[in-house]
Amino acid sequence: MTSAAPPGHHRRGQGRGPAEGDRTADVPPAGDGMPAGRSARSSSDERGAGTVVVVGLVLVGLLLATATAVLGQAVVARHRATAAADLAALAAADVLLGRATGDACGAAGRTAAAGGARLVGCALGGQEVVVHVVVPVDGVLTAVGPATAAARAGPAGSP
């Protein structure tokens, strides 16, 4: 007489999987999906590698953003210096041509200061004026030095 197995239990060799004591379950199937030369254990050696890559990419992004900000700061300082020099030269030319009163270089200095620059040179020659201005920079750019610009103003036919 054969005894029936209780519900949910199967006799050895029947049913759903290896029986107790059967060691074939510990051997991975031949086509386990791993590349040749790699075992399932080596994948755990790479845990956290994605985190390192992401942290590296974030740091590179921050470095590029900082470099872009510094470059932008330098460009803005250069534009401020150019604008201040142009306006200072025009103010001095107005005095030279009699459109305004006072000292031509004094007018250039006041105009440069109003534009955030400092007048460092003012050369008068007849109806022509050449000015040189400096705009200070902050932060990392102080190591490079201030932004400088020069401008000329006078009659159109002058060199």
TrEMBL record:
Domain Putative Flp pilus-assembly TadG-like N-terminal, chain residue ranges per copy: 48-94
InterPro entries assigned: Rv3654c-like (IPR021202), Tad_N (IPR028087)
Residue intervals passing through the bilayer: 49-71
Domain of life of the source: Bacteria
Membrane in keyword set: yes
Region annotation (Disordered) ranges: 1-45
UniProt keyword annotations, A-Z: Membrane, Transmembrane, Transmembrane helix
Protein name: Rv3654c family TadE-like protein
Lineage: Bacteria, Bacillati, Actinomycetota, Actinomycetes, Kineosporiales
